[in-house]
């Protein structure tokens, strides 16, 4: 499978498939495809797995697109302005992503729920207890809000991140929360009560504009119907 990410701030990934190659996506992400690609919809392993994906922010059903001959082309588009990041899974590495991060992947990539083990991180970490976990072999494509900054943390290296800006990370990265210090910082700092703390080793993807923050910024400008 070959791919190209295009579209600038409104990205899509265009995948070129050889005969028998299959891409999977959350329902509704496909933008266009050539006629030599066959589509099938299923729960991707049973109803329980489908329900698990729904709890982690995606849909119960997945679409599978298989090229019936060489030269198939299919494109998947992000549902909001941002970036599409490509990640290769080799069977030994796993990626943890925020809810709704999954866009598309090759067939042998597995998507499942991931529970935060630490109570504090689950309650105050900004995304809740249930995230998405990606394992297996093949290319994975995640959709990220706004621009993306990738950090490669050394063992023991720590990064403090405002809640909601953590888009994805290697499973090897430890995720916890840390309370903002100082009464004036808490009352007037505007950064909330907690930071997410990420400790290496591993990669971390930081998003510049969480969709929730974008929505908050737009709300004051929405006309109010006074009738």
Describe what this molecule looks like in 3D.
- The protein has 227 residues and is mainly beta.
- The chain has a single domain (2-221), classed as 4-Layer Sandwich (Double-stranded beta-helix).
- The chain is 13% helix and 49% strand.
- It is built from four helices and 18 strands.
- Strands 3, 5, 6, 8, 9, 10, 11, 12, 13, 15 and 18 form an eleven-stranded antiparallel β-sheet that branches. A four-stranded antiparallel β-sheet has the order 1-2-7-4, with no helix packed on it. It has a three-stranded antiparallel β-sheet with strand order 14-17-16.
- The radius of gyration is 19 Å and the shape is globular.
Number of helices: 4
Biggest beta sheet attributes: 11 strands, antiparallel
CATH architecture: 4-Layer Sandwich
Helix and strand element order: EEEEEHEEEEEEHEEEEEHEEH
Helix share, percent = 10-25%
CATH superfamily placement: Mitochondrial biogenesis AIM24
Task: Give the N-terminus to C-terminus distance in angstroms.
Answer: 55 Å
Number of domains: 1
Please tally the β strands and state the result. Answer: 18
Structural class: mainly beta
Measured by DSSP, the beta-strand proportion falls in: over 45%
Quick one: overall form?
globular
How confident is the prediction overall: mean pLDDT? 82
Low-confidence stretches: 119-129, 182-191
CATH topology: Double-stranded beta-helix
Which value, in Å, is the CA radius of gyration? Answer: 19 Å
| CATH secondary-structure class | Alpha Beta
């Amino acid at each position: 499978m070959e791919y190209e990410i295009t579209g600038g701030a409104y990205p899509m990934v265009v995948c070129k498939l050889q005969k028998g190659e299959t891409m999977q996506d959350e329902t509704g992400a496909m933008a266009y495809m050539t006629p030599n690609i066959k589509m099938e919809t299923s729960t991707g392993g049973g109803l329980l797995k489908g329900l698990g994906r729904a709890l982690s922010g995606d849909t119960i059903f997945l679409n599978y697109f298989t090229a019936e001959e060489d030269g198939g082309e299919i494109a998947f588009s992000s549902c909001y302005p941002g970036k599409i990041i490509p990640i290769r899974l080799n069977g030994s590495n796993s990626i943890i992503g925020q809810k709704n991060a999954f866009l598309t992947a090759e067939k042998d990539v597995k998507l499942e729920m991931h529970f935060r083990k630490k109570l504090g991180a689950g309650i105050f970490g900004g995304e809740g207890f249930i995230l998405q976990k990606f394992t297996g072999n093949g290319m994975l494509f995640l959709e990220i809000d706004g621009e993306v900054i990738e950090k490669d943390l050394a063992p023991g290296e720590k990064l403090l991140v405002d809640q909601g800006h953590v888009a994805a990370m290697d499973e090897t990265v430890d995720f916890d929360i840390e309370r903002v210090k100082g009464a004036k910082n808490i009352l007037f700092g505007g950064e909330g009560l907690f930071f997410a703390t990420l400790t290496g080793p591993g990669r971390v993807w930081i998003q510049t504009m969480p969709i929730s923050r974008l929505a908050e910024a737009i709300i004051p400008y929405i006309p109010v119907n006074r009738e």
